[in-house]
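Newbie here. two chains, one complex. Structure please?
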Amino acid sequence: MSPSSSFLFLFLTISLASSHGFNHPFDPLAPLEITQVQTIVTSYISSSSSFTTNQKVHFHYVGLEEPDKPSINSWLSSPSLSSNLPPRQAFVIIRVGQQTHELKVDLSNNSVVSNMLHNGNGFPTITSEELEIANALPFEYPPFIASMDKRGLNVEEVVCESCTVGWFGEKEKSNRIVKVVCYYLNGTVNLFMRPIEGIIVVVDLDQMKVTGYNDRAIIPIPKAEGTDYRQVKETDGEGERRLFRSSLEEEIIMQQDEPNFSIEGHTVRWENWEFHLAFDMRAGPIISLASIFDPEQDTYRRVLYRGFLSEIFVPYMDLTLEWYFRVFFDAGEYGGGLCTVPLQPLTDCPPDAKFMDGYFTNQDGSFGKTPNVFCVFERDAGNVLWRHTETGIPNRVITEVRKEKTLVVRTVLTLSNYDYIVDWEFKKTGVITVTVGATGLLEVRGTEYTHADQIKEEAYGTLLAENSLGANHDHFLSFYLDLDIDGEANSFVKTKLETKRVTGNWSERKSYWTTVSEAAKTESDARVRVGSGDTQLVFVNPNKKTKIGNNIGYRLVPGSNVGQLLTDDDYPQIRGDFSKYNVWVTPFNKSERYAGGLYVDQSHGEDTLAEWSKRDREIENKDIVLWYTMGFHHVPCQEDFPLMPTLNGVFELRPYNFFEQNPVLNAKN
Amino acid sequence: MSPSSSFLFLFLTISLASSHGFNHPFDPLAPLEITQVQTIVTSYISSSSSFTTNQKVHFHYVGLEEPDKPSINSWLSSPSLSSNLPPRQAFVIIRVGQQTHELKVDLSNNSVVSNMLHNGNGFPTITSEELEIANALPFEYPPFIASMDKRGLNVEEVVCESCTVGWFGEKEKSNRIVKVVCYYLNGTVNLFMRPIEGIIVVVDLDQMKVTGYNDRAIIPIPKAEGTDYRQVKETDGEGERRLFRSSLEEEIIMQQDEPNFSIEGHTVRWENWEFHLAFDMRAGPIISLASIFDPEQDTYRRVLYRGFLSEIFVPYMDLTLEWYFRVFFDAGEYGGGLCTVPLQPLTDCPPDAKFMDGYFTNQDGSFGKTPNVFCVFERDAGNVLWRHTETGIPNRVITEVRKEKTLVVRTVLTLSNYDYIVDWEFKKTGVITVTVGATGLLEVRGTEYTHADQIKEEAYGTLLAENSLGANHDHFLSFYLDLDIDGEANSFVKTKLETKRVTGNWSERKSYWTTVSEAAKTESDARVRVGSGDTQLVFVNPNKKTKIGNNIGYRLVPGSNVGQLLTDDDYPQIRGDFSKYNVWVTPFNKSERYAGGLYVDQSHGEDTLAEWSKRDREIENKDIVLWYTMGFHHVPCQEDFPLMPTLNGVFELRPYNFFEQNPVLNAKN
């Protein structure tokens, strides 16, 4: 890019960044601001005596330094006053000279406010550029080429992917490494169904070179036939070509003119809901200040201060040499936001969806863009909001039915083989439903087996096709939910449904159940494994009651869920101990954001939700955070081959004596 | 009706009944056939020496006598051969001279094939006519009028409803009674929010007179204000009038021309699915012979032989005198099918839905019709069937996304206050999802309380508004699912995910989980309370395997669910013991259809799923039936007042090594 075109680009960016004419303190860093951070940090490094001249800086994270709550609340009291905006700061993680630094950068005065060296275990999110280079290194490594030759494979058809390596109790300070595993395309694009087993290439990311190599065994590569998933495989010399999609084209014609929601800057308004939607290169979508309008009080009432996907823990259950370390912490190791993909209009989202872009930081500090990173759409799934047919009044039949429409915010995170469709759905009833759809490709292990009858010992999974074992694994997605149920100070109340036996003859009945509620005093009271359905989990504002005296609250309604099965002392579990319970509650602490820790790559589990919770802090009538872990045990089946249909997990936040009465009684169709 | 108009009517009915030009042995009785049954039975009674001349006959049930499986299978082998059709028979339950008779009626030769007197406990479904008369009896009963006067109530604004009375250990042979409870409309149509507490009117249904009365206490009636739920309350002298619904009118315009599914007679075909849909006055919708097309085998493969809602058990947890007996078995006591309501086009179902009517039998044997009892529609909820974005191949990005559309069959059962929206949803992936939405009105108890702080003793529920206690209760819906996974003989396999500790140093890991599968041998092995998610529940065809050797199967995937909390010895629980486990499996037995028994009104729990299961029959590699109970614990909250938003329960049947691979890999958008 020449200097003049660069200037033009910056100018355009400025125009775009301010085009919505409105600033919100939770707005993510705009492209111009990312560039500004790059300039400030680069200049700081080159001028600071702490750093050697000309040391190369890699940016691993650049995001908004979240303003303190008091300053947000002060701004909210009169948001039109721009002087009320909290100072605009960035939180930055860089690697310089094989060390990790955390910087706080003030954008208003172009300064680095603080610089902290990270001395502990664990490394920041690996950059996309590092992965790209590491994935290419085997092709310049003669022993690897020899291994391919030995197998008779055409190197041009081999692709490699870097796996994070975890931690397995090593005491010495570890190098920042990945283990590269490779696949043989030759006739398919579905690389994950064609693993070249038996080979591990160890790459040191700081030195960016191969530091270890093992070719243990030659194992058959599953066949390519039947693994491709593309609609059109023909090429016209310029890559894939698409058929004209007639049915989708028709849908465009049916598209309605204007959506029934508005997006002003990053603020989304729909029916009785208002919330802020931001993109972050670590967390992906962040929902802030979600509030629902209460016509009775003639005001918006807060439900959720901040909510995002905090970590994704995917431990595989295959203990073979090339597999045991596959215990991914996807969001922290690869970057949940970095791995978002552009949503395809008409297929990923309905025709009338509106799209937003997301901006992240490249390794060199420049900004990158994921176009269409979010879509927002109104969903009419043909459901009924409420209904009743009254036939109990003689000679009259009354039927009243209201249709349900909801608002969906969708993001897709593609973490290598898996695609996670993350939907935040807002309902007029006050319900927030979070649905995660898992689809994409399984990780498959190559094997000699061609028939299940041949399997005589532990195979760690299901034979999905000839030579293809689908490895057993879990997904644990931890959601950070800083609830503010009608205000900041909340309590977590467990309402147990208890069987009461009737003693004496005063009733014809011998039993019934009733509710016994108890507020969790400290963090240890608030660890819950869901499942029995006999305990209701309610977050109340103990300082407010409805007119008739019930505690104002919201219920956490888990969907079908599972818990961790690994032993407590297993290293992956030490790092991902948040998966032991589905529910944790902590007092708000700005530094506690990621359930597996800030530096999760090769972490030792020292900075995790489970560790913080051990402090057993008080959580009653405090500003508290709910951490909800949604789990899937995945025993693969043949229907998952060569690509799996979407499998959904879900949870809800549902008003529970939050309103004086049904808030949608007056809903119109 | 004059004889000539009656003839015309019959003629029209014949034309209608045969209009689809196709007969299926599972087709429900057509109106003409119901009339034929009425004629045959009436003539039989009047001519049979077993009955006194001129004894009045009440028809409590008339439905198809389900043909035997071999005759169905024989017909299926060449369905075009009408001679292959099994004999057309009806199953009839009548009451004559205070006794219950079961008749089998052959329609081909106009005869009663069998007549069995029911000597056991329990009574058949109460007829709508009986309920109507019973509900009116208090108004002719002077002590009741006096009670109204004492309370200063205008009798014209009082309406009453009959509650079944259950069984509480009485040894003597019971009369067929209901307990009538009343409500005060005066200013609302929401009668259930305005109970007149303290009064019970006992009505003997056989004598059809008041046989007991108690006015125990005067308790405030909750106010009417704010309880009405109608969109337009103004009247123009001819009852309610509707506003012009502009947004719905628009949707009609957007309606597509032809749906993507066909309904031929009662057979529905959509994408890869084919099934038969029938209406029954007890069970409501019955899905039969649900089969999915397998392009690899070029044939339809059976999944479900018969599926329907077998019973709905709703025990309330309020032990006060007017409430303890409210432990309803709605489907058997009031008739699940009898209580279906006509679906409202545009609101209960989307604009492009197709509707079907249902026919039932009136008390006198004539037929009645519920128009629009089912709707069938294709749903596009904006979901993704599957997707993947592949970024692992250098210099290429591949994104493939397929939209999901599904087919929904919807019915609404309005059981007095509650409306159940029952959706059978078929997915191209082979998944069958059953969703039950509970909406409508709570049962509310009148109380002195106007503020929660006043409650010092057990209130059995939540104060929802002044003087209104929402009673704690459960819903247990038992689904009868006669699975035929790729054939009749199936086994139920529990696949447990077991933690394995690694011993020795051969792995860096200390643990993993693996699967241990065991087929249930007998009924006692097959009782499961779901929840932990650590056991997969699979129905396999042990006689068939996929090409690579996996058992062909379908998984039962429970949604979030609950189990029974009543004690085993409590009378309601003895009658509704199927609620103790979410999963039961029995060998197919034509007489075992209703989890709470055939004669559930005032039953003693002698003919229930739990009782049948005690025989502990063999179920491995047999024609087996899965009974799945979906449970809700409902602790009411203010949002449920004065009408509750829809609350969903769900379960799925999902192919599990049923197909050789993902059956929707080639799906087109």
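Moderator note: Chain A touches chain B through 150 residues (CB under 8 Å). Residues 249-656 of chain A form a domain with the Beta-galactosidase; Chain A, domain 5 fold (CATH 2.70.98.20). Thread marked as resolved.
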